Amino acid sequence: MSGKSVEPVRKHVVVEAPQERAFRVFTENIDRWWPREHHIGKTTMKTAVLEPKENGRWYEVCEDGSQCDWGKVLAWEPPRRVVLAWQLSAQWQYDASLITEVEVTFTPEGPRRTRVDLEHRNLERFGDAAEAVRNSVGGTGGWMQLLELYAKAAQG
């Protein structure tokens, strides 16, 4: 499948929260809304962590104390934009050599309302598994479910 581009997954949600709060809840407060079943560790996930800086780690801490990397922060531009390296393989394991990008932008639609756009791109880097991964992250249990959980936390 080399050379064939795969359409990015694009999702959005509008939250009843100011831009700065919307950004902070998505990034620094990711543990408040990230579902515990979305983890790669051998034991139950205790905490989801996104270090609030460029080159910061994006990872989980499991109940047994172990840590599993998910990726890293490629761009940190509060309160407007964050770009994350998604470094999980098609088998949902961390792979330092694989980078797809998740860009999230926060656009004010008023003083207390923000549109949050998410794009997961470079999916062709999954090779033969690209369409399957796209269907998974773009499907009902993927990014849209996560954005809905996030929106509840941002508005709460």
Kindly describe this structure.
There is one protein chain. 19% of the residues lie in helices and 36% in strands. The chain is α+β, with helices and mostly antiparallel strands and 156 residues long. The chain has a single domain, classed as START domain (Alpha-D-Glucose-1,6-Bisphosphate, Chain A, domain 4, 2-Layer Sandwich). It has a seven-stranded antiparallel β-sheet with strand order 1-7-6-5-4-3-2. Strand 3 and strand 4 form a beta hairpin.
Outline of this structure?
This protein is α+β, with helices and mostly antiparallel strands and 156 residues long. The chain has helices at residues 19-26, 130-138, 143-155, and strands at residues 9-15, 45-50, 57-62, 67-77, 81-86, 100-110, 113-121.
